[in-house]
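New to this. Look over this protein:
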Amino acid sequence: MKSFKYMLMAAAASLTVTGCIDETFPEGGTATQEQVGASASALESSLRGIPTQMSQGYFVYGDQVHETDMSYAGLIIAQTEMLGDMYTGKGANTGYDWYSNYNNFSRSYNDNSYFSYLPWFSLYKLVKGCNDVIGAVDMETAADNVKEVAGKAYAYRALDYFTLMYLFEPKENKYTDCSSVLGLTVPFVLPTTSIEQGMNNPRVPHDEMVAFILSDLDTAEECLANSVQNDLLYPSLACVYGLKARVYMWHAGMTKDSEKVEESYKNAAKYARLAITTHGQAPTTEAQWLDMNTGFNTAVQSWMWKMSYSAENMGNLCNWTGWMSGEADWGYSSLTMPSIDRSLYDHISYTDFRKYTFLDPDRSVYNYKSPRGQEWLDEKPEYMSLKFRCVNGDYETYSIGGLCDIPLMRVEEFYFIEAEALAHTEGYEKGVEKLNAFMTQYRDPNYMCKATDLREFQLENLMQMRIEFWGEGVAFPMAKRIAPGIMQNYEGTNAPADAYKINCEGIKPNWNLVIPRFEYESNPILEKTNNPDPTKAVVGPSPVGQYS
């Protein structure tokens, strides 16, 4: 496997010769497998480093170069923007939204941009951390406690490769020509991959990548079968089942082997149910959801896996709460006032408590509360989010209010996955039954799914996922798989400028991320198998209510 340090140094050397790059890229290194494997304590210390890295500010660069350099936490925000589910609030300056390029195509999205570079290298740097643990353990001779450490690293690596797969595996669309690269994912980077192998390391076919990820999860399942989850920072057996459900759903929608589709949906339903029963905890309650001091900043019983900030891995700008909480008085969110897309908001019933996550145009419909007071609330724009609160209501001190938990996996996800998977294998009526059961018991007692066929059900189930997981990134791979069409320019849209007013049939072309030039300059085989550049593939505004 090619080392991350080598990739960076090789690319930096090539830049010295060409002098033609638009943006600054870093050099740096990480611990070696020998260092990690020197002792059991070093192994556990290296494992602890993985969740720390996932929320590390300025993770790739190590310095304040780009404010989206937020590791896995930043990728969650990016996916919410790509869906078109989040905009800056009315009256806010869109220039402060560093993530806005994920929502439109007005700026460079090519192989020389931060928006290709940071997702790729963030995820491969996380893979490197997992490989350092995995490569230091002999699974045939290791003690059970050591295998448990390795099992968690295998689960983390599965998450990283799954994320790489669904971000970079191209989905066919009408705006860019992906025909030559359909079915290709990303290169394998393993503990045993040499620098020489890394210099000729092709994109792996879809089926092969899925088999690899499932193999990692099989290993994790075996290692964690008898373990007890004492810390939500680390994956449990329930999380492994949840990851399998995610992978099988993606596989069912993307494999070219038609015989595997129904089998994959059956497995998705199976593992979604196992995730629910193994976790054994109820979904988030209304009181927990809307709590102005702990809402979505402190793990509750429904959370299966989380990331967390500490004083050591955050600053006042490059942190989750400073991006996602409109109440925070630091970072960029006080300037961008992150808001939900109006059409998505309008789909939520007033009998669904999730409606009150966002400021309604008619403030009298709900008694909104904020530690910042009523006068402050009255001045905020309609549709602004109150989902991600400052810790303990402290909106002034980033080192207190920003020391939050971030949900990486919640049990609610698997009710939705199970519903769609069963709709494919047992008929859409079964999916409707499952969705209605979840919604009426946990979200809206008056809810009733009105779908009359499988496609209508898929779209409604996805819509409820986009509402449920707004800002959490969970719905993005589901959307990319089923290609629902994205409508951001419609009568009454709250898209803040023409660049955002884009309507794309199927998927938005930037849902197929581009492999960065910095990578293929040291691994040339990737240059001719790159995804097409989506920059300005769709130029806003699209015709109102019509696809471009």
